[in-house]
Design brief:
Length: 90
């Protein structure tokens, strides 16, 4: 299935960031939930204006909208919420 956004909406996908696993011996309550990171790095899949297509962008996590269609989940953000692009340094 393919979703193409219109207007100010940008279709993104989540980035899986590698983190180092550290062993620890900390007991936490069963209902403890790790706080969400306030910012997310997303890869732009479809941008109607083409400005960010293929870029990795930083957005506030709370503005990411997830839309479920059948068995697939799509993630949309409004263009104005893009804070920065991420580029590799050489």
């Amino acid at each position: 299935m393919r979703l193409e956004c219109t207007g100010n909406w940008v279709l993104v996908e989540t980035m899986i960031m590698e983190t180092e696993a550290k062993e620890s011996m900390v007991l936490l309550p069963e209902d403890y939930k790790k706080p969400d990171d306030p910012y997310s790095v997303m890869r732009v899949v479809h941008d109607p204006e083409g400005e960010y297509r293929g870029c990795h962008v930083v957005v506030p996590t709370h503005v990411i909208r997830d839309i479920k269609i059948g068995m697939e989940t799509f993630y949309l953000i409004e263009r104005g919420h893009i804070m920065a692009t991420v580029r590799e340094t050489k």
